[in-house]
Specification:
Elements (H helix, E strand, L loop, with lengths): L4 H7 L4 H8 L3 H8 L7 H10 L4 H4 L2
Helix pairs in contact: 2-3
């Protein structure tokens, strides 16, 4: 599954570390998601979409 997490994170000027703290996950989790090594849980996907003010469909394809 491809995602646009890195794009949205950089557009908002948020580091992986800051994003991980906001979502209560490790920085490594954010890195793995961005590099398509890990698919987030549905709950985490919805949290990411809410944080970036977009939809899960827009973030993941």
């Amino acid at each position: 599954m491809k995602n646009k997490i890195r794009e949205y994170r950089k557009q908002n000027g948020i580091s992986q570390e800051a994003l991980s703290k906001k979502l209560n996950v490790s920085r490594q989790t954010i890195n793995a998601i961005e590099n398509n090594k890990y698919d987030p849980t549905l709950t985490l996907a919805f949290k990411l979409a809410k944080l970036f003010n977009t939809t899960v469909d827009e973030l993941f394809s």
